[in-house]
Amino acid sequence: MVDFDVIVVGGGHAGTEASALASRCGARTLLLTQNLETIGQMSCNPAIGGIAKGTVVREVDALGGIMGRATDLARIQFRMLNRSKGPAVWSPRAQCDRGLYRRAVRMLLEQHADLRFAQGTVSRFQFKDGRVTGVETLDGRQYRARAIVLTAGTFLRGRIHMGLETQIPAGRAGDSPSVELAQNLATYGLTVERFKTGTPPRIDGRSVRLDRLPRQDGDEDPYWFSYFGRVDHPKQMPCYLTTTGPELREIIERHLRESALYGGAISGRGPRYCPSIEDKIVRFPNAERHQVFLEPEGLDTHEMYVNGLSTSLPPHVQLEYLRSVSGLEQVEMTRPGYAIEYDYFPPTQLESTLQVKHVPGLFFAGQINGTTGYEEAAGQGVIAGINAAAHVFDRDPLVLRRDEAFIGVLIDDLVSRGVDEPYRLFTSRAEFRLLLRQDNALRRLLPTAERLGLLNESERGLAYGRLEAEEVILKRAQLTKILPIRVESLLERLGSAPIDEPVRIAELVRRPGLHLVDLFECLGERIDEATADWAEIEIKYSGYLERERDSANRLSRMNEFELPDWLNYPVLASLSYEAREKLNRVRPGNLGQAGRIPGVSPSDLQALVLEVMRGRPRREGACFT
Amino acid sequence: MLSDPIVALATPPGRSALAVVRVSGTGAFDVVAKVIVPPAGGPNWLGAIPRRATLGAFVAPDGRQIDRGIYIAFPGPHSYTGDDLIELTCHGGSVVPTQLMSALISAGARLAEPGEFTRRAVLNGKLDLVQAEAVGDLIDARAPAQATAALHQLEGGMSARIEELREQLMDVQSLLSYEVDFPEEDDPPIPRERIRSKIHGVTGVVTQLLATAPAGERLREGALVVLVGRPNVGKSSLFNALLGIERAIVTEVPGTTRDAIEAWTEFEGWPIRLADTAGLRVSEDPVEQLGIEVSRRYMHSAEVVLLCAEADRPLTAEEVEVVRTKEAVLARTKADQVAPSNETAIEGTLVSVVTGQGLAHVKALIVSRAYGAQNQGRYALDLEPVLLRERHRVALSHARDQLLEAGTFLAEEGDPVLAAHHVRGAMIALEEMIGIVDVEDLLDRIFRTFCVGK
């Protein structure tokens, strides 16, 4: 019997962040996982970041998580997506070397003095008086703790499908599923549902005619996900592009009935935004071609990941359709793709803290909450880790607001709206996407990190140094005037009107196409681009940012209107039947959450406010009309 | 409390054959049960026979019978308010309805606030905000055209239009979101032209709706029609004749009318505010001078000027000027004194308050000037929705501003995020109009409407 404050079950992207954060909060933490060698494994595509997700990585980093640092250590290609669109939606994305990433995660975790590791398969949780007290492993070991974070990913009754014949119980190719724990959890009365997701085949890069395919290199600009130090990146590698054609369509149509998905073997729902190739063929019959990205798996391997061709067809069909793709005529498949079905717990069963409702001390994070994506998992892991520690030490839990972080949007969406397909973040899920940017994640979250004591001395120094450097650039842009002669050629090159008297840099940079880095360069000065982003965006978007902050403040007033536990939704006749049913199922914590539940109308909200007012103990003189 | 039983007399007080009393709210049926003696063999619970007229006795708390009448129960949510509602029809007059109301109040109902039934209908989602406003307009309508417009709005004409626009903006949002959230997909980026033309379409409809605002206001308030002319041309006589009552004093003395007199009427079903003014002339009399000043101001704000000039003389330069520059109807008065042979040469409509000649024609001309296009199909139910309230105009004009702003970011190099920001602004404006409101406003409204917490 070993004692801990917090036990994290699972070593994926949610589990590792939860472990790091619980231990940063001062909790004696145990990371318990089936296989210590696969901690930090990237189960699907070898890339971190992307639209909205890249911002989450930076938020995780600002709060002391490890994903950003691990990415910097493992990245073999970097691109800033949406560069041609507004800077509010620039999204960093990195291809990573799988092996380097895993080792980086392990190394970063090992730096936490209060974090211990153990290998084992949890078979059941232990409870006393309705509170969790520990876990027991299949081999009979017991670990005690006051809080548990479950991050089982796709492992709960995970089942891999390749065609109709092959069904393998597994959490991921090569790893066994958790069946006993799933059965144990089912006895607590939690609702369990099934989702499916898929992964594409992988191939030997030596068998690909790479010389005939368009090559996609990364950006040359230096960029680091982490705010805490600028490590050297490994050697950079390109991706390659190709497309499918009519031959692939013909092959898939011919074998469609053999697909696990279309042959009826899979019942769980999959994500619409990440369809399998058979889905694409069936749902978009007019699309002649589909894009395929060949992504390097790492520096020390020829293996490549075939992004865009995930599937549940049998392996021999996979090889057949792969060879129909331009450049892949002679391809050798190293691993077939597969679909995987797994248990998830509809997340409306959680509090905003990620604690399971009515089960003090039990927290859920990651894919078991119905999300997909490494970044979504990591964001939840951070919050679950912090709140597990808060539970142990009886501190206030952390709930990030929707205008404060994408992580706040993510968790609020999960607990107040629930999911009907695997949930992925998009910038359009945020009401205030101009405020939630990759360049200002540290600025948004440093106060929280400070309040909770998540950063060490050297990290704090780097964080404050970074913010100060950004502010200095802003101040200087506002104060410095630039002479016409200095910017003459720059303006001419951009087709921007010339100036005839000195103009402040902050004034000039508002023009489309002009950037602080270039303007300072006209003054003979090189400034750091990543540091300048924040100042530039603050200037270019200033009016908009103020308005968004205004509306955000208005929204937060709604969130401050709490909906008490005693509300008995089924009998509130002033609410629509649909609203009564939905509100009763979700039991939102505040009016803002109630308003985001589909089916709850503004008139329901208005009635709800009145019910709460009515039910409150009335003071002398209070009146209602 | 939110849905406590309320009671109100639905018909006007005073002598009448019948009166209707309405009770609504949670427990309304229990309240009414204490006042009703149902027919023998009828069920005790009123909600048991929904929406059927039943004859019963109405009794006071002491058991004394007040009246015998009809009652109809509407169990919620299938009622006007969405709560349980019951209508009792008793005999009219000043005694019976009052006694019935007191009996219901003793039984536990509370006298309703003005508009409370409708407010509950809104709270319960039976009506949206625009429709609730229309209920008030329908009740307050004084001319058939007003009632028609209000009914159209109540039936959801305007709400449906706004809802449709909102749907279209949702499409635009999804296109912009695709561009931002899904780069590097199979489908190429969406041509900006496609987004621009969608926004353009919505802006067009919003602009059309906004253009109805003056007409809507006119319909609500009545078009201001001002009689002007030289002294003693017979303005006041014509004014009285058009109203059908002796409203203004008429004498042989020029300059009798000193101040402007305004009266409400309707021509052919359209609401009209008719104003008689002092005759325009150079006067030494300070009182008359002030009156003439008032006349000019009225003329300035008139929707239609009814210029009066005797039929038997040529128009003065000043009168010609008025006809030329104003939305004017020219009435040639005292037509009964003109020889019939000269009639065709006279410009304007010949009118006579003595024979009644030309009055109907003048009314028709006024209506067509004041209500022009709307008058085309008369006031049929397919009347286009018009903006009847300032609140609607403000919301739509904000929506239009936002859409125009959005358009500026849809050039090829424009920032789709800012375009989306403005489209969202436009959507919110539309939502606020039909009452899908921001909760901040909602809270404000609640705190304004209800006295809570102290």
Describe what you observe in this structure.
The complex is a heterodimer of chains A (625) and B (454). In chain A, α1 runs parallel beside α9. The N and C termini of chain A lie far apart (62 Å). In chain A, strands 16-17-18-19-15-20 form a six-stranded antiparallel beta sheet, with no helix packed on it. A five-stranded parallel beta sheet of chain A has the order 7-3-2-11-22, covered by helices on one side. Chain A contains 20 helices and 24 strands. Chain A is an alpha+beta fold and 625 residues long. Chain B is an alpha/beta fold. Chain B folds into three domains: 6-123, Gyrase A, domain 2, CATH 3.30.1360.120; 157-212 and 387-449, Four Helix Bundle (Hemerythrin (Met), subunit A) (Up-down Bundle), CATH 1.20.120.430; 221-375, 3-Layer(aba) Sandwich (Rossmann fold). The two termini of chain B are 15 Å apart. The model of chain B is unreliable at 377-382 and 438-454 (pLDDT under 50). At the A-B interface, α17, α19 and α20 of A face α6, α14 and α15 of B.
Write a brief structural summary.
The complex is a heterodimer of chains A (625) and B (454). Chain A is of the alpha+beta class and 625 residues long.
